[in-house]
Amino acid sequence: MIRRVFAAAEQVAPSIIFIDEIDSMLTARSENENEASRRLKTEFLVLMDGVNSPKSGEILVIGATNLPKELDSAAKRRFSKMIYIGNPESEARREMLLRNLKGIDYELSTADINKIVDKMDCYSACEIRSIIAEACMMPLRELKQSEFQKISAEQLRKLKLKDFLAVLAERKPILSKEELAKYKDKI
Asked: Taking all residues of the chain, what is their mean pLDDT, rounded to a whole number?
């Protein structure tokens, strides 16, 4: 299948092959690794070597990972550049929050929004979207099952700061500030 992807990319070049979560495919090799996994890695590495040949045309291979330390060293060498894309800065978190709240009834002051934005420091964009979605569900979760079918959207209570604080108390960022600093230093 990997061979087919590279062959198709070569036929329609210039092209880009994007592999999300590349660490799931190219983790560091180990002795207890199964044969299929080993063959997959070897095939990918051979094909990556071919990407740089004049015969391959114009193919760009991009791999995304949250775990660069887990990648096989031979795979890392095949990629000419490693780019660290950090978590959203304060203004980006604010924009994400406000965009996701469009069309939602909420009671959040500017101070509340600032507090939420500050507390979401160290969270990835994906984690932030999930936190917002979970907070938006909190007013529904307060309803009893018998009320659930009788209440209209307009009767639902507005989203509040306490909803975000409850979700943030339960969910910690995947990476701590210290771990994020290590990633920055390695790249």
From this structure: 86
Number of domains observed in the structure of the chain: 2
From 49, 78, 107, the end of a domain falls on 78
Six token digits for residue 118 = 């500050």
Q: What share of the chain in percent tops pLDDT 70?
A: 94
Residue-wise pLDDT for 67-107, tens only, equals 787 888 888 888 888 888 888 999 999 999 999 999 899 99
Residue type, 164: F
Cα(56)–Cα(47) distance, rounded to whole angstroms?
10
Q: Which domain holds residue 13?
A: 2-78
Q: 3-class DSSP state for residue 163?
A: helix
Global confidence as pTM: 0.67
User: What is the predicted pLDDT for the residue at 184?
Assistant: 66
Q: Is 106 part of any domain?
A: yes
Tokens (6 digits) for 2: 């990997």
CA distance linking residue 160 with residue 157, whole number of Å: 9
Candidates 63, 51, 76, 68; CA nearest to 20 is 63
3-state secondary structure at position 3:
helix
Same structural domain, 65 and 118: no
Cis upstream peptide for 14 (omega within 30°):
yes
